[in-house]
Amino acid sequence: MLSSIEILKTDADIHKQLLEAETILLRVKQSRIGPGASMLTPVSIYVTNMRVIYRKPVWGGLKSEIIVVNYQDIADIRLKRGIIHTDISLKTRFHTDEIRVRGADNDLAERANSLVQQGIRQEHRGQSKQQDFDSITSGGSSVETNQKENTASTIEQIDSLAKIADLRLNGILTDEEFHKLKSKIFDRI
User: Fold this and answer.
1) Long-range contacts of range 130-136, CB-CB < 8 Å, 24 or more positions apart?
2) Predicted confidence band at 189 (pLDDT cuts at 50, 70, 90)?
3) pLDDT, tens digit, 9 for 90 and up, residues 132-154
4) What pLDDT sits at residue 1?
5) Could you tell me if 102 and 152 lie in one domain?
6) Which residues does 9 contact at the CB level (< 8 Å), separation at least 6?
7) HEC readout, 93-121
C-alpha cells in the first residue's frame, strides 16, 4: 500500500492503474528545463514491482496516454547519458514506438535501469503473484495442476473405501474396524 506522500507524488490516473499487490518503486519524470525537457507536459515512467507504466500527457496535460509494459515484454532498456540529464529508452516487444523519457535526472535514470533489470530477472517482491495470474490466464496453470492432483488423491481414497467395504462384506473386517479405517480415510480428505 502506498503512503500518503507517495500517493501525492503519483498521478491520479496512474494510481487507478495499480493492481492490488502492486507498489511503485520509482517515478522518473522528464525535466521541465534543460536539454530534452518539456516545460508544459513532461512524461513519466513508474517502475513498479510488477511492470513499468508510462504516462505521456497530451492536450496540454488535460488528458494522458498510458502504456503498461510487463517486464517480460521489455526487449531492451537504453540510457543515453549526458552531463546533466539522461535519456531513458525502453524498447518493447509489442509496441512499435519506443517508450522514451528525455532529460531525466542522471541518478534516477540509473536507479530506473537497475530496477527494470531486476524486474526482467523477476527479482522484485510480489512478482510471483503476477506470474501466477499470467499462468492462469495463459492456460497451462498451477491451478490446473492442483486440480489434477486433488482428483487423483480423491480417486485413491474412493478406491480405499471400496476395498475396505469389500473386506467388510466378505467378513474379513468387523464393523468397528471398518468404521475406524473409514474415518482415517476421511481424515485425509
Assistant:
1) 130/19, 130/50, 130/51, 130/70, 134/70
2) low
3) 445 444 454 455 555 556 666 67
4) 38
5) no
6) 27
7) CCCCCCEEEEEEEHHHHHHHHHHHHHHHC
Report the amino acid identity of residue 117. Answer: Q
Query: Which residue's C-alpha cell is 496453470?
Result: 141
Please state, in angstroms and rounded to a whole number, the distance separating the CA atoms of residues 104 and 110. 10
pTM over 0.70: no
What's the structural domain count of the chain?
Answer: 2
Do 99 and 75 belong to one domain?
Answer: yes
Using CA atoms, how far residue 102 sits from 57, 84, 137, 150, in Å, is: 14, 12, 35, 53
C-alpha cell, 67: 502504456
Residue 120: which of 89, 77, 161 has the closest Cα? Answer: 77
- Of 84, 102, 131, the residue that ends a domain is 131
Q: How confident is the model at residue 128 (pLDDT cuts 50, 70, 90)?
A: low
Between 129 and 18, the higher pLDDT residue? 18
Q: Is residue 11 part of a domain?
A: yes
Q: What is the extent of the structural domain holding 167?
A: 142-188
Residue 137 lies in a domain: no
